[in-house]
Amino acid sequence: MSDTISGIIQGFSPMLDKGAVVCGYEIMEPIGSGGLSQNYKARSSDGTFVTLKFPSTELVGDPATYERFLRELKIGQKLSHPAIPRALAINENKTGPCLALEYIEGKSLRTILRDRTPLSPEQALDFIIQLAEAVSYLHKNGVYPRALKPENIKEGQPFRFKAIDMWELYN
């Protein structure tokens, strides 16, 4: 890893304020965090929204973290499926590496199951088919998601789901 990349990772700032411009995107709000990343809703210069992912503070300084971001982008850019967000770019600046992904507005499957249950048999079957098709597509492309759970699946449009957390992938 180059000294520049190492310095970028070591200089990562975990708390980003609304309105801050990071990696070329304006931070709108935090949208979640997990063991590997912190996620923010952000706006690009053309006004479109993206999800920005930054390595969690526990991973700052870990050379494998940057490589993981690069692998995520490479995998994400080769995938094209309606149930998988597009990987848009990886950027670097003094705040650290950030991965820009298609932003999916909507409720998580966990919230939907809590608020709308019981689902009709048709709705449940439709969801299962969408998820099975997405997982099958990933597997056919040599990608194996590790964090496929109701919190990481969003309803982008009524009963059109996307698996949003593609950070934890095996390839």
Polypeptide structure, described:
This protein has helices spanning 3-10, 63-78, 109-116, 121-140; strands at 21-22, 25-33, 37-43, 49-55, 87-93, 96-102, 144-145, 153-157, 160-163, 169-170. The protein is of the alpha+beta class and 171 residues long. The protein has a six-stranded antiparallel sheet. Strands 7-10 form a two-stranded antiparallel sheet. It has a two-stranded antiparallel sheet with strand order 8-9. A hairpin with a 2-residue loop joins strand 5 (87-93) and strand 6. It starts with a helix and ends with a strand. Residues 1-13 have low confidence and may be disordered.
Summarize the structure.
With 171 residues, the protein is of the alpha+beta class. It has helices at residues 3-10, 63-78, 109-116, 121-140; strands spanning 21-22, 25-33, 37-43, 49-55, 87-93, 96-102, 144-145, 153-157, 160-163, 169-170.
Poorly predicted runs are 1-13
Biggest pleated sheet: 6 strands, antiparallel
Number of strands: 10
Q: Which structural class should the secondary elements be placed in?
A: alpha+beta
Question: Termini distance?
Answer: 21 Å
- Provide the spatial order of strands within the biggest beta sheet: 1-2-3-4-6-5
Number of helices: 4
- What is the 3D shape? globular
- In percent terms, what proportion of residues is strand? 25-35%
Oligomer: single chain
Helix content: 25-40%
